[in-house]
């Protein structure tokens, strides 16, 4: 089974900061990686698919990069609404469909 | 717009059964694979099952295999999860999600809570 490892688990930052979250796969998954944002009590929301494609309606301060086994989610110019938990998710193969363990983005 | 609404969650004793439903609207339900994903309290996301558009293919996570059954009724635009032999570790919020044809989850329901406790 493919394992997904996110880092860091928790990230403290301030409004206006640029932050990066990393997701590593235990084997190559091409570009078949998505990123989701989840706020407490809410469903996850798709941000990025195919490693770097921005979902419609998602602000352009969110960007994704990477391929193979290492990926990043970058938020440029943090806004108050961005403090949430972020998950990566591989969908290259039925593995079965693991998520990363999540990165909680907190206000410093 | 795409809407997914789960129902059927609740409190159930260990060993008991529960059936979750997910009502879909705003898209052609029969064109899409669908999944169930759960989240234990304070924990991350765990994919547990998917079903192909015409129910030919079903897959399950090892944690639920043999106990849970996914199904759908395309005429009713509905997805189901029959959960048997429930354990305390099945406690959590259960989300249904639509799969893009390339398999990422592009729409999610709001979730329904399941508590397994005596």
Task: Summarize, please.
Chain A has about 110 residues and is mainly beta. Helix content of chain A is about 0%, strand content about 50%.
What does this protein structure show overall?
- The complex is a heterodimer of chains A (108) and B (118).
- By secondary structure, chain A is an all-beta fold.
- Chain A contains no helices and 10 strands.
- Chain A has a 6-stranded mixed β-sheet, with no helix packed on it. In chain A, strands 1-3-8-7 form a 4-stranded antiparallel β-sheet, with no helix packed on it.
- In chain A, a hairpin with a 6-residue loop joins β4 (33-38) and β5 (45-49).
- Chain B is mostly beta strands.
- Chain B contains no helices and 11 strands.
- In chain B, a hairpin with a 5-residue loop joins β4 and β5 (45-51).
- The radius of gyration of chain B is 13 Å and the shape is globular.
- The mean pLDDT of chain B is 96.
- Classes of the chains: A mainly beta (108), B mainly beta (118).
- At the A-B interface, β4 and β5 of A face β5 and β10 of B.
The major β-sheet of chain A equals: 6 strands, mixed
Please give the alpha-carbon distance between the first and last residues of chain B.
40 Å
The number of helical runs of chain A is: 0
Radius of gyration of chain A: 13 Å
Order of helices and strands of chain B: EEEEEEEEEEE
**What percent of residues of chain A are in strands?**
over 45%
- How many strands in all of chain B? 11
Total of helices of chain B: 0
Distance between the termini of chain A: 36 Å
Number of strand elements of chain A: 10
Q: What class do helices, strands and sheet pairing of chain B give? A: mainly beta
Q: Give the overall silhouette of chain B.
A: globular
Approximate helicity band of chain B = under 10%
Largest sheet of chain B: 7 strands, mixed
Protein chains sharing the most extensive interface: A-B, 23 and 21 residues
Strand content of chain B: over 45%
